[in-house]
Amino acid sequence: MAQDPTLKEADIKGKLVAYSSDQSNSSVEKSGLLGSMPMRLLPADKEGKLRGDTLLEAIEKDKAQGLIPCYVVANLGTTPTCAFDDLLELGPICNRENIWLHVDAAYAGTAFVCPEYRHLLKGVELADSFNFNPHKWMLVNFDCSAMWVKNARYLVEAFNVERIYLKDQHKGLAPEYRHWQISLGRRFRALKLWFVLKIYGVEGIQKHVRHQISLAKYFEELVTKDQRFEVCTSSMGLVTFRLKGENQLTKNLIHKIQERKNIFVIPGQFQNKYVIRFAVCSRLTERSDVEFSWQEFQSQADEIIASKITCEVSDKKGISAIQLSDAGCDKNSIEKCK
């Protein structure tokens, strides 16, 4: 309104638009719905990062249509592959365009306790707010979310609703956290965070993070040694991988794994490839657990590939679908062989 006094508040709300990467968490898209504004999910590059030129192109296109870009969510550790957006690319654009830059480091933010990963934070001083979830990797019980804001005044003014029964003589002497969110009350999460910091200390948390990353690297090595598989991405405690070949093979593999219920993994999408996300999460995970998980993948891959070979041979020899079923060929392969 300061830039264009002719616009009314209702006019501005109808023109606001926000941006993030198509690799962002689902909560980012949901925030657009809650804020009643379009959330543009911009395409990431081949490494899963949102680039500055992609963001700038989208901003200029929307401004040309009379819209008002107001909010960007950058990712330090995307959900699908734990990719890190370059804040030194995105930050200057947001600052120049007067756009609020929020950094979502929900999972990977804990890694910044280790000096060797802080280079990924370069440009964070250009952001307006920063969030990470200690309950995801910092050993804190669910739920606990920590957020910093460069200027809390904007947050307070946005949620400030004065009532006579809320006034007191201490106004201005201490932060009134009822102005920081929608509800008047909130759950008390600081104590459990304090206990983790007290018990583990900085060195203990660093040891935990480094140990889990080393386990993920170990799993990556196991996958690489098996020529039937390919590693798609590896970042922090997350490895994405797949069976080489058509996506259906990996879909069949994860379906078998989920049916057996010995380990829990979920699928993902990377460069039009269907992948499996292997994330080291529990503080109790050891090398033996990683080896057990890998044996699960290998044993089920053996069955899938054997079924595929049986199907391919039967296609040449005219074996019936009943025979294929008896041989362990999955439903999709049987349909293909018919």
UniProtKB/TrEMBL annotation:
Keyword match Lyase: yes
Organism of origin: Callosobruchus maculatus (Southern cowpea weevil)
Pfam families recorded: Pyridoxal_deC
Keywords for this protein: Lyase, Pyridoxal phosphate
Gene3D superfamilies: Aspartate Aminotransferase, domain 1, Type I PLP-dependent aspartate aminotransferase-like (Major domain)
Modified sites of kind N6-(pyridoxal phosphate)lysine: K136
SUPFAM superfamilies for this protein: PLP-dependent transferases (SSF53383)
One GO-annotated biological process of the protein: catecholamine metabolic process
Protein's name in the database: Aromatic-L-amino-acid decarboxylase
Keyword DNA damage: no
GO cellular component annotations of the record: cytoplasm
Cofactor(s) in the UniProt record: pyridoxal 5'-phosphate
Assigned protein family: Belongs to the group II decarboxylase family.
Gene Ontology MF annotations: aromatic-L-amino-acid decarboxylase activity; pyridoxal phosphate binding
